[in-house]
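Memo subject: From amino acid sequence to discrete backbone structure tokens
Keywords: amino acid chain, backbone geometry, structure tokens, three-dimensional fold.
Body of memo: The sequence and its backbone structure tokens, given next.
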Amino acid sequence: MAASPLDLLELDNLLSDEERDVRAVTRRVVDDRVRPHIADWYESGTVPVRELALEFGKLGLLGMHLTGYGCVGASSVQYGLACLELEAADSGVRSLVSVQGSLAMYAIWKFGSEEQKQQWLPGMAAGELIGCFGLTEPDHGSDPANMSTRARRDGDDWILNGGKMWITNAPVADVAVIWARSDAGVEGFAVPTSTPGFSVREVKKKLSLRASSTGEITLDDVRLPASAQLPLARGLKAPLSCLTEARFGIIWGALGAARDCLETALEYAGSRSQFGRPIAGFQLTQAKLADMTLELQKGYLLALHLGRLDSPTPAQVSMGKLNNVREALKIARQCRTILGANGISGEYPVLRHANNLESVLTYEGTSEVHQLVIGQKLTGLNAFAG
């Protein structure tokens, strides 16, 4: 009797009823609103961000791990399971939710004033307002400490100049959390995207994360009142803490992409016959399926362990992202071999997941960056500048 990839170790027994409920609700909305359309969205390079945000907002999926201001205050594991189900449909859809909740909303919730929280968070939690997170720059991806975007005082106002690149949700955002360097160090700002001098060019011709809205932000003498500054955001640790928050969702999300690939490969192998019998009955195919299932369950246990910790450290989160995304990409590529020529067809999700995971592998910290974070923790020596 065939078993599901996550059933062999009876991992559901490790979840509470509430956690399973969140998973079920998220899976239902994904099955209803995303899966029937995702292949077409990917092929056309479009995604109905605002429509999806409103649907996700109704279910409390946006900023779900935050408290107050319309956020439901879910546990880390509940949030992780939601990310897993979202990315089982597509990494771009999970990215929409991660950027909204774990980057833009979290930055305002953690570092903003009460006025800023009241202004932005309820609408963002409901999906009525869209946020983006402007840290990465064209010339400064893995090295945000050397960002070129500048903020200078002009009386009581701030003037921002610079640019940000590869910013998810930017083309449709109502508010952008922008990080800039001032004379005092790195500062954060909640910038209404309607502010004069703020412009966005949508990034086209992507070969990955095509069902995601991505933009390049230009800041040309953007004048902001003092009230736009995030008052508690001081230094580079502020945006980096937001990245740690978002990476936790990636740890779970990558498992969703891997699971979807593996389930597709299992179904295909059981129905595809060669040499007179299903290819699932061949030893080499079963070896692939066994190895992939083992890595999927190991990654799940790692994610669950991190979710049960009160507050995982950046190094612990780096271990999770490094392992789970790397293994998920391997699983996607291996599943494509089981599907043979059909593996490149858009009728199956496998190569779409593999293409998406190429982006997930490098955004919010490349594998090399996470290796160095872990290495520094192990040795006490900083190799980033060496």
User: Anything to note?
Assistant: The chain has three domains: 11-125, 131-235, 238-379. Residues 238-379 form a domain with the Butyryl-CoA Dehydrogenase, subunit A; domain 3 fold (CATH 1.20.140.10). The chain is about 50% helix and 15% strand. The two ends are 54 Å apart (CA to CA).
